Amino acid sequence: MAVLLSVKAVDAGYGPVHILNQVQLEIQAGQRLAVLGRNGVGKTTLLKAIMGLADVSGGQISWQGQDMARWSPRERAMAGLGYVPQTRDIFPSLSVAENLVAGLKGRPRRCIDEAYELFPRLWQRRDNPGTALSGGEQQMLSVARTLLGQPRLLLLDEPLEGLAPIICQELMQALGRLARDQSVAMVLVEQKTDAALRFAEQALILERGTVVYEGQSARLQSHPEVLQKHVGLSAH
Ligand SMILES: Nc1ncnc2c1ncn2[C@@H]1O[C@H](COP(=O)(O)OP(=O)(O)OP(=O)(O)O)[C@@H](O)[C@H]1O
Ligand SMILES: [Mg+2]
Q1: Structural domain tally of the chain?
Q2: How far is the CA of 130 from the centre of ligand 2 (A)?
Q3: Co-location of 142 and 113 in the same domain
Q4: For an engineered disulfide with 148, which of 103, 109, 177, 187 has Cβ 3.0 to 4.6 Å away?
């Protein structure tokens, strides 16, 4: 299978602050990877480094074989990388429909129907401003808007944070359908370990900016002591 994203021996951080050490990973088309780890270990920084939003001081990040070092975040998005940040960056004063239009990247307006198909809740709220949405609806809007740009790889930073179990399920099912039907690859950063391991076939654990585990999710699920040691939670 074709390698979409390759991260090789990457050191990254913010200016003089060094966060990631020698991080390696590879994502193939349609593959799903869970990124786990305690608070502050560098999970968000890893996604930011991939998007060109953190400073990479060593190693190489490439997209379909091309070094992205000189690419702006916008160029990365245009090339097929979609990023849903931990902060759910929707436009609060715009309606749901207007927020979706902002994600179209020049595609025709009618394409926003794809978002309503994926999340029927957004159709019911289409005229509401971003401020009038619940946390779960904001998260759906943030994911849906990114998806309208037709990414080949979606980077999701704790999409389930603060959501009720039923909404988590709805969101994960929508993402699962998308991964299956359209072969969108995904990197899922998540504190909800069990949901993340069920969703992604591969998992990676970060500890203080270093990858301390990489392998099949199923293996981690059957070794709760590894999760306990590095993440501090069991898979159940
Ligand atoms: N803009 C920044 N400038 C300097 N240091 C930062 C910046 N953003 C984050 N950090 C630091 O980098 C480290 C890793 O942060 P990061 O946000 O990547 O962790 P995380 O694993 O995503 O944590 P969480 O689970 O709490 O979201 C932390 O020590 C944090 O304080
Ligand atoms: Mg984070």
Answers
A1: 2
A2: 22
A3: yes
A4: 103
In short, whether 45's Cβ falls inside 6 Å of ligand 1 is: yes
Closest ligand 1 atom, residue 42 Cα: 18
Same domain, 146 and 60: no
Ligand 1: which atom is nearest the Cα of residue 46?
18
pLDDT tens for each residue of 148-187? 999 999 999 999 988 888 888 888 998 998 888 888 999 9
When the pLDDT of each residue in the chain is averaged and rounded to a whole number, the result is 93
In a domain, 227, yes or no: yes
How far is the centre of ligand 2, averaged over its atoms, from the C-alpha of 34 (Å)?
Answer: 13
Cα(47) to centroid(ligand 2), Å: 9
At 1, list the tokens: 């299978």
Residue 53, phi then psi, degrees to nearest 5: -110, 0
- Long-range CB pairs of 17-20 (<8 Å, 24+ gap) are 18/57, 18/209, 19/45, 19/54, 19/209, 20/45, 20/46, 20/49, 20/209, 20/210
Range of the domain at 130: 90-150
Per-chain residues with Cβ under 5 A from ion ligand 2: 43-44, 86
User: pLDDT (tens digit, 9 = 90+) per residue, 79-127?
Assistant: 999 999 988 889 999 999 999 999 998 899 999 999 999 899 999 999 9
